[in-house]
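Consider a protein example.
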Amino acid sequence: MDTYFGVDFYGDGEVANPGELRKCEMVFDDYGNWKTYTDVNRVIELYNVKKYIDTGIRLDDWANLQYGSYQNKANQVFEIVGRFFNSKDIKELATLYNETNIIYRQDFVELICKVGLYKKFDDLQFSEFLDETNIGIARLLREKDIVYKFGKVVREYILKDAENAEFFVNRFLERSEDKELYYIPKELTAEDKEKLVQSYIELDSPNMNYLTVIMQEENPDKLKLSEMTRFKAYKKLEIMRKKLFETGPSFKTGVGIGFKPMDGTGKIENESEEQNELKVSYDSKWILDNLDYATLLNNFYWFEFVDFFNRCLLVSQPSEYGLENFLFGTRGLREYQSGTSFRIKNTMAFLQMTGYYNILCQHGIEIEDIYKWFFETYLKNEFNVDGFVYEKVRKDAPFGERNKLISSKIDHILKQFNLYSKYGTIDREYLEFSSQSVEFSQVLSLSADKYAYCNDENIRSEYTSIFSSQSLLTYVERIGKTYDSFFKLLENEIVYYDDFKNIQKERIDFLLSQGTISIGEAGKIELKYDRLRMLIQFYKYEYLCLAYEKTEDNPLKDALQSNKLLVENTLFSRPEQDYLDYLLNKHKFSNGLDLRNKYIHSTNSLDEKVHRDDYMRFLIVMAIIIIKINEEFCLKEELKN
């Protein structure tokens, strides 16, 4: 059978598709033959033509008389389609479906409902029809009438193929862009759906992304899975990953951190030799020549845990997501989204902390002793802040015990700082009385206006158009080269307004109206850097640190005054809150590492190496907390002076 590419109705018809509307003209030109069509594809094409006409969308060169004629002809489509389908014997429909072009198969199922043909089937006939056509369940479950009439048959059809579990996982456990309304037969029980998922897990080669989602996501109202089912998905995933790494091709990214004597000035050397590796060495002489606790704490800036504005750089940033996130990544309902860049940054931080810990231990220094000094000595001497307590670690304590202690210390420190933020003092008696833990999002800043978040769709559209690689503005034909962003295009090339096509000019005009760019002599496009300073931070970090911004600058001042920015006064920014929750808990993110809870509730591994690795991650968390608290008191002191 020759493939037929006729008129195809796209989406909801809100946007005109000139190519498809031109094809509609050709169909209308053949109006005299409509009633004689015998090809199912030509008949279903009429249905798609009617959909376009019903939306009211038209080409600019369609005169009113011509368009009125099209409307009158389109009104006859259902009569023609109904006569065609109702003339067919039930036993012919499976063959007819299989002859239907793939772009029209959803329409086929939709039409047998609209013309009432489904009512002629009995259960056995419909079951045979499904078996002969192998209709995908996503296509089938869109039709309410079919699902309600043949619920038992549809249930049995779903359960025949374990791969149908992917539909339910995608629909109920993932963040999906699919806005279609699906109807699930009432005959399909919660137990049925779990058995389907279990059968999927037992397949020889289930999709590893779906296994990941099954393992970590929960939605008991829609797809109830027992812990044992999720555990089986976890074990299957382990087996498949091991096999993949042993036998399959892979893309490897190497990360290595070293410490070696240099000139004692704190040099950092990049020793990467291949494209996909990152090897960095740090000056161990600098460390050993400066063993005072203040410098040892400052070395976390050296490791780039934070930037100059004390923003934690280890968080997952949407601006760093690569193509792999969109093609291969899972999007669980409660998953902490991340990509390769996030994994590299956090692997580096882990290796940095591990190497740093080893060097200091060799010289009799426990990193937690430095933390204790910060809270109990430094804050008191530098800022006259008294009352912080940090429990001393036993040098001979095994790592499992250290992890349980530091888990509680994190909560203890946050409660102490939150008390100070609220009342200007740490009331020890009240602290001991209160048993309520504090969330990262609840810890208040000493500043009334700490962070600003974008609260305006135009600003979001603005920074996406300027900095995203997905922008329409990264290429102009005259230059013939695609840049990573519109910003880089303008930074590297002289570009004029008339270089862009009409669809691009709409976006250019929008940026002009926002004040992001200006049009200079001869139509040359120029960037306005005062506004870009604000926009690039929203794009890259998702927020501004107001303490370091000049709020009297017009772009920022205007955005604040017009409520286009949302200001909050928390110790941690929202991305930092999410990152710390991801590391320590699982109540917010289904794929969280759950470091704190597993040690507090003794569900941790018994492997001492795992305990040691987890301890390094706990030390990273506490280092971030210290950096953020130190920033608070430094900013408070600056305001005082």
Q: What stands out?
A: Residues 390 and 444 are 20 Å apart (CA to CA). The first strand starts at residue 254 and ends at 260. Strands lie at 254-260, 268-270, 277-283, 451-454, 517-519, 525-527, 544-545, 565-568.
